[in-house]
Design brief:
Number of helices: 17
CATH topology of the largest domain: Rossmann fold
Helix content: 40-55%
Strand content: 5-15%
Structural class: alpha/beta
Number of strands: 13
CATH superfamily of the largest domain: Leucine Dehydrogenase, chain A, domain 1
Low-confidence stretches: none
Radius of gyration: 21 Å
Strand order of the largest sheet: 1-2-4-3-5
CATH architecture of the largest domain: 3-Layer(aba) Sandwich
Bound molecules: NADPH dihydro-nicotinamide-adenine-dinucleotide phosphate, (2Z)-2-iminopentanedioic acid
Largest sheet: 5 strands, mixed
Distance between the termini: 18 Å
CATH class of the largest domain: Alpha Beta
Shape: globular
Number of domains: 2
């Protein structure tokens, strides 16, 4: 079957799954030339087998809230592809979670994990449970209820979940505790664990740091660097926080961050002290970003809006999918943005990607620029298998080397005849080839 035929068939088979179809269409649109060079792929119906998840696990999660009411949420795990290693990918807790969103994330994860150079297949999971406004005890009971079903489907050589939106160190800890209780096994079945029980140093920082290392590499292709560059950041969670931290270390000036209610613009820049305030606000007090403007009165809070209409040199979306639409992309280009690096997964809609590419600005898709998180998860798995713990410097050096490697692969497969680097094509082709070759070698399974 031709790549375009596969998309049409998936649209008919899964009509209510727009994000999944969006992600598949984006990838297939860029790998077609490479795919057509390999008639053996078509004979093995490789594309259809690569696009449809190996397995979709769906379950009920019932738990008791602080008032004694019984609540029921949906739980999911999408085991997309394990051709190159055990299933691997985060867990998302957010009220918007549904099958379409998790299938798009698991599909993307398969290519991302392939790019990291480490042996990891692709997966994603989660629930429509939202930790927002819940007490710590409620979050614990939910995590335990979720794991009481998930534990049968995961294992260090089978499937290794981690965090994503709404799942950080606290939630990973509660889920790990329940797995241990149910199985009597102390195993590396989750990454992003606490430092005291098998977590890797630099894992909390890895996605944000990796995003900025990648951005540095992109700028280097044009003889430029981050010093003095103003940056629009969205999100205020894990990825946004450590993106801001690394931007500051490299001399850039972050101007914005956001949550699902709105964004703050700080004309003086978000410095180290202000970042420490954001970390305390979001990670400990679990407050809202509008409080930043009360703490720092020079900053302005914009309720219900996104930061993309402000003027800056660089933009890095670090919140969620489809947060940059065509209008926002046009505004960024009109305001002179030179680079867009995605910390989030699929934050830019297809029409907006076209705006960036037509303007020939540096633009990189999340599966390459945010791969640092899962890469250090892979390093955490290695440390767990070895029963050793590496130093900060060792992990950071490996993370840096992996991000350089991903960048090189994007350049190799994405450089156009006019010299423009199409990072979307580069990342998709490089990610695809490794998985495709592994699938071919393993027969029709
Ligand atoms: P967090 O939960 O730590 O932070 C998410 C941030 O995005 C919060 O500020 C949140 O605001 C905001 N947000 C979430 N959903 C929406 C929405 N629907 N609309 C607007 N804002 C929203 O998550 P992470 O930082 O871990 O994840 C951010 C992105 O990075 C996601 O796309 C994730 O898939 C991706 N990613 C994460 C990795 C990781 O290692 N954690 C690795 C690679 C990619 P609020 O507080 O209001 O919910
Ligand atoms: O989207 C992602 O890459 C993640 N949420 C991290 C996955 C992981 O297994 O560390």
């Amino acid at each position: 079957m031709k790549a375009t035929e596969v998309v049409e068939k998936l649209k008919t088979r899964f009509p209510g799954e727009p994000e999944y179809i969006q992600a598949v269409s984006q990838v297939l649109g860029t790998i077609e030339d490479e795919y057509n060079k390999h008639p053996e792929f078509e004979k093995a119906n490789l594309i259809e087998r690569l696009c449809i998840p190996d397995r979709v696990i769906e379950f009920r999660v019932s738990w008791v809230d602080d008032k004694g009411n019984v609540q029921t949420n949906m739980g999911y795990r999408i085991q997309h592809n394990n051709a190159i290693g055990p299933y691997k990918g985060g867990i998302r807790y957010h009220k918007s979670v549904n099958l379409s969103i998790l299938k798009f994330l698991a599909f993307e994860q398969t290519f991302k994990n392939s790019l990291t150079t480490l042996p990891m297949g692709g997966a994603k999971g989660g629930s429509d449970f939202s930790p927002r406004g819940k007490s710590d005890a409620e979050v614990m009971r939910f995590c335990q209820a979720f794991m009481s079903e998930l534990y049968r489907h995961i294992g260090p050589d089978e499937d290794v979940p981690a965090g994503d939106i709404g799942v950080g160190g606290r939630e990973v800890g509660y889920m790990f505790g329940m797995y241990k209780k149910l199985t009597h096994q102390f195993q590396g079945i989750l990454t992003g664990k606490g430092q005291e029980f098998g977590g890797s140093l630099i894992r909390p920082e890895a996605t944000g740091y990796g995003n900025v290392y990648f951005l540095e590499n992109m700028l280097k292709t044009r003889g430029d660097n981050l010093k003095g560059k103003t940056v629009l950041v969205s999100g205020a969670g894990n990825v946004a926080q450590y993106t801001i931290e690394k931007l500051l270390q490299l001399g850039a000036k972050p101007l914005t961050c956001s949550d699902s209610d709105g964004y703050i613009y700080d004309p003086d820049g978000i410095d180290e002290k202000k970042l420490a305030y954001i970390m305390e606000l979001k990670n400990v007090e679990r407050g809202r970003i509008k409080e930043y403007a009360e703490e720092y009165p020079n900053a302005v809070y914009h309720e219900g809006e996104k930061p993309w209409f402000e003027k800056a040199d660089i933009a890095t979306p670090c919140a969620t999918q489809n947060e940059i639409n065509e209008e926002a992309a046009k505004a960024l280009v009109a305001n002179g943005v030179i680079a867009v690096s995605e910390g989030a997964n699929m934050p830019t809609v297809p029409a907006a990607i076209k705006v960036f590419q037509d303007a020939k600005i540096l633009y990189c898709p999340g599966k390459a620029s945010n791969a640092g998180g899962v890469a250090v998860s892979g390093l955490e798995m290695t440390q767990n298998s070895e029963r050793l713990k590496w130093s900060r410097e060792q992990v950071d050096e490996k993370l840096h080397a992996i991000m350089n490697d991903i960048h090189e692969n994007c350049v190799k497969y994405g450089t156009q005849p006019d010299g423009y680097i199409n990072y979307v094509k580069g990342a998709n082709v490089a990610g695809f080839l490794k998985v495709a070759k592994a699938m071919m070698a393993q027969g029709i399974v």
